[in-house]
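Summarise this fold before class:
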Amino acid sequence: MLFRSSSAGPHSITVGTDAGNVEYDNLMVGDPMPVISSITTNAANPSDFQAGATSSFTIAGSHFGTNPTLNISGPQITSNSYGISGTPTDQSISGWISAPAAGTATVTVISQGYNTNNFVQSGSDSPTSNVETVTIDPAEQAPVPTILLNQQNVTNNVNPIPVYVGQQIALTAVPLPGTPQTNQYWDPPQGSTIASYTIDSATPPQSAVVTTLPGAGNCQTLQGSCLTFYWIAAGDAGQANETVTYHYSLNGQSQAPVIVTFQVNSPTNVNIDAPQQPTSIQPGPVIWTSIDFNGAATAPAGNAGQYSWVQVVNSQQIKYLTSNQGTQNCTLPPFKPGFVGPVVPALDRQYPYPPEGLSASDIPSYALSAQSGTYQIGEQFNSASYTMILQWNPQLANSIPVPLGSVTWSYACDAANTLGNPQWVSLCPSTPSVPTKAPFTAGGAPPTWQGAIVRDEVLSCVQQ
């Protein structure tokens, strides 16, 4: 005898005989185990889920019951990552999943039974289906803007892009086709940078100005699709990896930033040996000293570049003690009378300081005279402080010289008019009788100045 039960659970069978006897037995009718036969998705590969997106799917099979549930597990998948859409049937379940990461997911269907809310087990049947595995494909990558360095694509380089200190770094983010990027901006580049270094074209140059990031110039604001700047140092080792980060949005959504790594190179083993002769009165008569600048450096591989010097005047004082007009404090333009010093250092005579290369010298001397104009001079005091900077330029398009190191040196001497022979004697305060050496300072910022001093200009004096 065959029969179909309409519900799961305990049932009994009663059998009557011809003799009128009644026989019966109890039996349990269970729910069948659910079986998954296939899973189809709307992803690019219809048998896979897609990481980083919401995939819809359909599970086909049998014996899912009237109120099945799902269990999906995988990398970073939680109970909030998936769900059932609509009303499932005994043979089909529609759902969705937002898989955070690529990998493998496992899918099972859990039957709640057909006519009750509890699965009724009979024999070895289980409410949980067979396990189906589904590959989670990596997230589709949004298009990444191309970053150009002087028209060279530097977006996907495996190794850092080699550049030099003083080289102009002109970066441009190319617009994406179809949906151009918006909300574009750049993080300040790592390392020691400036936006620009501008020396005017006068002879000699009257000003040198450093602009830092963010600057007001085109491609210097850190906003928009372009960025222009210079690295001015690469650390003690002469080589440093520094990054530049570009941010943007697509369709109003922020995207992963584009990061470009550069290998910044500069000369190494930099030093300036600067022996200075004692300040003294020499024939002329003049107040005199001399100093030599013997630079040393090893250029970075592949670029000898050009070494040069620039000297700025930090302070200068000339004082006359006269017999007829008291004490006169004198200055050379652009210094203010009273010897309070300039607003910023002044350029010393020329730019660059001659000659180019790794060696230079200075021999400051100031004439001594018993009379200057209407002044009857009995004593003259001279002092000055200078900073000499060794620079290197990579000699590339729009490159600038960058400071490698400097020495700050000075002299001071007082000369008295004896009215005899010799007419002038030295009263130089604590002047060493042997050469001294100005200390070397590595690195530094590009020198700035306002105004330039030409040492034979007419003095401007005021009475103290």
Notes: The CA atoms of residues 55 and 109 lie 18 Å apart.
